[in-house]
Amino acid sequence: MKKLSLIAVLFISIFGLIGCGNNTLEKQKNDENASAGLKEITGKIYQAETNEDGNIIINKDKITEEVSYYSYEYDGVIISLLAVKDENGKFHVVINTCGSCGGSPYAYFVQVGNKIQCQNCGSTFLITELDNLKTDGCNPIGIKELEEQEDKFIIDHEEIEQYKDKFENWLGPTN
């Protein structure tokens, strides 16, 4: 009987701590200090275009100050890229998973104001700083072979394909 009473008290305590309302979730969805996994995905999702060499093409005219996601399919796995123009008009293109969290289903980034936030660990990054990423760090994965032309970016498909394993269980924006 004592065990049953203890379990009931424990259950009630946990329920009281967690709460039952949806108001907290709605309030936190666009709060940059909210814990990970609560943000709405905004922006457009595109299927990545490729050129005759199989390299990925991202047209600059589709990149705005609202994050765009580009889905590239390789060997049955969708690999995602993220593109955005910062408040200074500079373009940024990165692989849409975290160097440290990659492999987790929620290791993708969502825009929150002038930052992006990992939906797995909650780390945030200023959009203006997306060119200053650590290799294998807790941040989006930078693209080394990113060729910028007047109206588009060309990304070496082989560089992107090496990250396939980080996307096998990934649940980020793809369509």
In short, what is this structure?
By secondary structure, the protein is of the alpha+beta class. It has three helices and twelve strands, in the order ααββββββββββββα.
Description:
The protein has 175 residues and is α+β, with helices and mostly antiparallel strands. The protein has one domain. Helix content is 16%, strand content 30%. It has three helices and twelve strands, in the order ααββββββββββββα. The protein has helices spanning 2-18, 23-28, 157-161; strands at residues 45-47, 49-50, 56-59, 68-74, 77-85, 91-98, 109-112, 115-118, 124-126, 140-141, 146-148, 152-155. The strands form three sheets. A five-stranded mixed sheet has the order 1-4-5-6-10, with no helix packed on it. The protein has a four-stranded antiparallel sheet with strand order 2-3-12-11. A three-stranded antiparallel sheet has the order 7-8-9, with no helix packed on it. Strand 11 and strand 12 (152-155) form a beta hairpin. It is globular. Mean pLDDT is 82; it is low at 4-35.
